Each structure stands twice: as C-alpha cells, then as structure tokens.
Amino acid sequence: MEFLSIKPNVPVYNALIHACFKANDFESMKIAFDALKRERLQPNVVTYSTLISAYTAKSHFEDVLYYLNKMQESGMCPNELTFTSVISGYGRSGNVDQAMEMLEKARKIYRKPDEEL
C-alpha cells in the first residue's frame, strides 16, 4: 500500500481483511492481520468481528475462540453482531450446546444490572 502513497490505517486493513475473507483467501487474511499489527496499529472491534465471522463461516471454531479471547484480552467487548455470527455458526454446524453457551455469554455482557433473564 505504501507504493501508492497510502498510509495504511485500521479501516484500510479492515477492508483488506474483509476482501480476503470474501475471496476465501484465509492465508492472505492472516497476513493482512499480521501486517496491521506490524504497523503497530491496534485492531478494533470491526477487525476482530471480521476475523471471527470469517472463521465462523468455515466452522473453524478453534480460531473463532482464539480471536474472541484476543479481542477480550485487548480490552474490547464483542458486539451483538460478533455474538450473532458465532451463535449462528455454531447452530449451522449442529453445535447447539456451544450456541447456547455463547448466548449466555452475550446475555452476561449486555444485561443491565436490574434486568431479569
């Protein structure tokens, strides 16, 4: 990207990661994510959600959990779209127990203090 005089930033990398996902090129997607970190840029919720959605679409749940953990270790909270992607992915693959477990995690994160389940 530098040869085009474009200074890479997080939204540019997010677009690249998403393009790699849509092209089913997971190796390039990981290379783009690693490049983002090499540039000392901080992945954001969109970055992690895109990675999580990509791996969910392929039922690569070890990678899904890895990036969910990385996201939370970075101090970010998965948003509703992230949880929806994971829950749907588990459901599509027949992992209903894991889908329910993820739903409970989402409820704990987004529950208001006075809200009943």
Automatic annotation (TrEMBL):
Provide the leader sequence positions.
none
Gene3D superfamilies, per the entry: Tetratricopeptide repeat domain
**Which residues form the PPR repeats?**
9-43, 44-78, 79-113
Pfam families assigned to the protein according to its UniProt record, in alphabetical order: PPR, PPR_2
Q: Does Repeat show up as a keyword for this record?
A: yes
Question: Is the keyword Repeat assigned to this protein?
Answer: yes
Task: For this UniProt record, give its keywords in alphabetical order, as a comma-separated list.
Answer: Repeat
| Protein's UniProt name | Pentatricopeptide repeat-containing protein
